[in-house]
């Protein structure tokens, strides 16, 4: 089985180690220098990962080295996650500093020693792994992966013509540039500079010119050089640029060539020849650097030309014989035509008028930049009937504030993306490649489930190796390399044995999923199991017939996802509110559960609360503070009169600030809303533009009729116009509001 290089985890760990938060916390607890050394050592390892990946199938020693490295990287990741969690629990870095110096807390001292000890524990194996680099013979490379996204470079740079972005002035400017290039002149080096902000299509225009037959017949040789390297850094020094210009196709020449050797090689290629050189994506504006470049290139025949693409609007630094060609953005009509052709195929008359309206607002915010229009058009093409996706782009704050001279034009499309949207994109990519199949969707086209073919599953399993384990009745022990464990069959006895014994003895398990009905009523087993899996990020204990949720669940500080659905517990321990990283909590079908923890408001990162098919009497007070919530199956309006005076329940007003809610929402027990509260909370749902389905339920006993106040209630609960489905149950008025 192959080992997998944890590129993304290494990059995330390095990013976290270098962050200002880590530096502040490191200083606070006296481990800043230790963290800095960890960062340096991991950086060294990161530099050889690409070469290690190439040797994985050839060398058992490299496989073992990767396995050991993964263990250490996971340990560092857990350490940094503990740092972040501790910061969240204490209210942020600023408050931490003041508290640390203003009071002597034994907990803080203990945390300091704990962190310091853990850093030392990581240091020794990391040193050993670093030493083995030289024994294995792996060498440093650029650590940017082939799929890494480079913000500074929006267009693939090569002489081959890429998919052309329609430019209003494209054909005119192409002819203008070609005329300048082929017209006779007495200069040895004449420069034409295509100038404009990122995304206007400078490289595309240069490609069209470069590949034009007139140009090909006029110049020999032609050379294309992207001045920026893979990491987005410009290489405009004399030696670096010479290497790029003279680079052979197979790049097998001696890498130790001197500057004179490079000059001689260039002269052989262009001396007394009428050449065309394209320098794509130039940022350097130092006149002395350009003077050196011009001197190098003056050996060509008269009539030789250089075509430059640059974002620098001032091109005088390139020399007096430079002609700038400035590209402008599209006007609003050209912008809409480009967008409509890409997104609707020119058939916008068949599209929902509301989507057309939102689409035109989106296009107007693109400031005529073809790349943004093209990218957004292709992105929204797959959601031609999903208004919520369009609205989420329309509300993107970075797109709203995009200035006319913005260089990082694609950054606005990547930022502010919800994690769920990114996951959805990955899912669709797997689906498009037939790696997933048999997708089931709901009435609103939301994906409910899918399957993976056995062959694909086996291939995936062979790739991840021992890191993923599927429990079965014949497994009695779990290796330390297993990080993700799942159970797909009824093996209650095996599960009890593994949980109860020391088969899982403080192992770095990150995922534990029970995906089949089993019987584990005994909370003693859970109390024994949970403290030994402190690294868990994902925990599913659904359908285990659990009658009591252990308090120790609140100690699993790394948890992002908990599924306790279809269990028989009546009380949810308050300790769960210590889980500051928790993003998803599922308690569907917990029939005996009547209320959630009173301090639910402290789960500040909670994004999904799935609580349908429970018999809750009210929502906890303060749930309005969970402003990241996107899923809330049921909101139960409480009745203050049923509780003691000092006990507060969640009222309808709690919903007002939860404007990220999407999918389906049921508001139950609306009979508990008083008239005074209704008057003060009108328009409570009008800003929830991502909701697709809304159910309103009154829970009175006996006759539903004779409650004319329900009409006012309905008026106050007017939903956003984007809502697709409305269901009303128990409504007591004789007519609906107009």
Summarize the structure in words.
This protein is α/β, with parallel strands linked by helices and 738 residues long. Helix content is 38%, strand content 12%. The strands form five sheets. The protein has an eight-stranded parallel sheet, with no helix packed on it. A five-stranded parallel sheet has the order 2-3-4-1-5, covered by helices on one side. Strand 10, helix 23 and strand 11 (538-540) form a beta-alpha-beta unit. The termini are far apart. The model is unreliable at 92-105, 142-154, 162-168, 230-234, 248-253 and 403-416 (pLDDT under 50).
Short description:
The protein is an alpha/beta fold.
Unreliable residue stretches: 92-105, 142-154, 162-168, 230-234, 248-253, 403-416
State which percent range the strand residues make up: 5-15%
Range of helix content: 25-40%
Gross geometry = globular
Strand order of the largest sheet: 8-9-10-11-12-13-14-16
Our measurement of the CA-to-CA distance between the termini, rounded to an integer number of angstroms, reads 66 Å
Mean pLDDT, nearest integer? Answer: 77
Oligomer: single chain
- Global structural class: alpha/beta
| Separate helix tally | 25
From the alpha carbons, calculate the radius of gyration and give it in angstroms: 31 Å
Largest sheet: 8 strands, parallel
Count of individual beta strands: 21
């Amino acid at each position: 089985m192959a080992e997998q290089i944890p590129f993304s985890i290494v990059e995330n760990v390095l990013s976290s180690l270098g962050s200002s938060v880590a530096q502040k916390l490191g200083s606070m607890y006296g481990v800043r220098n230790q963290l800095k050394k960890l960062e340096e050592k991991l950086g060294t390892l990161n530099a050889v990962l690409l070469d290690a990946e190439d040797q994985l199938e050839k060398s058992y020693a490299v496989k073992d080295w990767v396995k050991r490295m993964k263990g250490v990287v996971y340990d560092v990741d857990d350490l940094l996650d503990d740092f972040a969690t501790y910061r969240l629990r204490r209210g942020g870095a600023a408050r931490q500093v003041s508290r640390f110096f203003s009071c002597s807390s034994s907990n803080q001292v203990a945390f300091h020693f704990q962190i310091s000890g853990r850093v030392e524990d990581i240091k020794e194996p990391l040193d050993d792994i670093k030493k083995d680099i030289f024994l294995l013979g792996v060498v440093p490379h650029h650590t940017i992966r082939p799929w890494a996204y480079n913000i500074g470079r929006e267009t693939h740079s090569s002489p081959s013509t890429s998919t052309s972005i329609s430019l209003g002035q494209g054909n005119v400017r192409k002819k203008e540039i070609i005329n300048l290039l082929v017209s006779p002149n007495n200069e040895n080096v004449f420069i034409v500079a295509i100038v404009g902000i990122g995304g206007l299509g400078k490289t595309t225009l240069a490609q069209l010119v470069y590949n034009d037959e007139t140009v090909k017949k006029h110049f020999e040789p032609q050379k294309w050089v992207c001045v920026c390297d893979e990491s987005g850094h410009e290489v405009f020094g004399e030696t670096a640029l010479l290497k790029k210009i003279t680079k052979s196709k197979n790049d097998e020449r001696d890498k130790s060539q001197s500057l004179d050797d490079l000059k001689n090689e260039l002269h052989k290629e262009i001396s007394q020849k009428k050449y065309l050189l394209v320098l794509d994506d130039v940022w350097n504006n130092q006149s002395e650097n350009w003077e050196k470049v011009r001197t190098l290139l003056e050996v060509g025949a008269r009539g030789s030309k250089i075509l430059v693409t640059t974002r620098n609007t001032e091109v005088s630094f390139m020399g007096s014989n430079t002609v700038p060609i400035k590209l402008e953005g599209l006007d609003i009509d050209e912008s809409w035509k480009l967008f409509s052709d890409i997104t609707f195929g020119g058939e916008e008359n068949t599209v929902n008028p509301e989507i057309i309206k939102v689409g035109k607002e989106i296009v107007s915010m693109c400031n005529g930049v073809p790349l943004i229009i093209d990218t957004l058009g292709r992105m929204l093409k797959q959601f031609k009937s999903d208004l919520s996706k369009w609205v989420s782009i329309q509300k993107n704050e970075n797109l709203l504030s995009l200035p006319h001279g913005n260089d990082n034009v694609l950054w606005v499309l990547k930022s502010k993306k919800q994690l769920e949207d990114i996951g959805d994109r990955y899912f669709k990519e797997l689906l498009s490649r037939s790696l997933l199949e048999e997708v089931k969707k709901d009435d609103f086209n939301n994906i409910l489930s899918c399957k993976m073919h056995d062959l694909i599953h086996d291939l995936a399993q062979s790739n991840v190796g021992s890191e993923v384990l599927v429990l079965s009745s014949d497994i009695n022990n779990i290796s330390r390399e297993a990080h993700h464990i799942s159970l797909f069959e009824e093996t209650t006895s095996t599960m009890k044995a593994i949980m109860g014994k020391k088969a899982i003895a403080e192992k770095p398990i990150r995922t534990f999923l029970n995906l089949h009905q089993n019987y584990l009523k005994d909370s003693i087993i859970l109390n024994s199991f949970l403290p030994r899996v402190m690294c868990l990020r994902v925990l599913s204990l659904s359908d285990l017939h659990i009658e009591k949720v252990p308090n120790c669940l609140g100690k699993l500080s790394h948890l992002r996802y908990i599924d306790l659905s279809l269990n028989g517990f009546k009380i949810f321990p308050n300790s769960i509110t210590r889980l500051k990283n928790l993003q998803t909590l599922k308690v569907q079908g917990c029939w005996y559960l009547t209320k959630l923890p009173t301090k639910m408001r402290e789960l500040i990162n909670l994004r999904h609360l799935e609580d349908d098919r429970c018999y809750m009497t009210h929502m906890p007070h303060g749930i309005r503070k969970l402003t990241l919530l996107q899923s809330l199956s049921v909101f139960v309006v409480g009745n203050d009169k049923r509780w003691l005076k000092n006990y507060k329940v969640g009222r309808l007003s709690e919903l007002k600030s939860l404007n990220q809610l999407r999918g389906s929402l049921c508001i139950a027990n609306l009979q508990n809303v008083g008239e005074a509260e209704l008057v003060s909370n009108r328009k409570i749902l009008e800003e929830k533009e991502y909701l697709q389905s809304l159910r309103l339920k009154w829970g009175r006993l006996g006759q539903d009729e004779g409650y004319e106040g329900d009409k006012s209630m309905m008026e106050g609960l007017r939903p956003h116009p984007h809502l697709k489905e409305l269901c009303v149950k128990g409504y007591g008025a004789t007519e609906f509001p107009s």
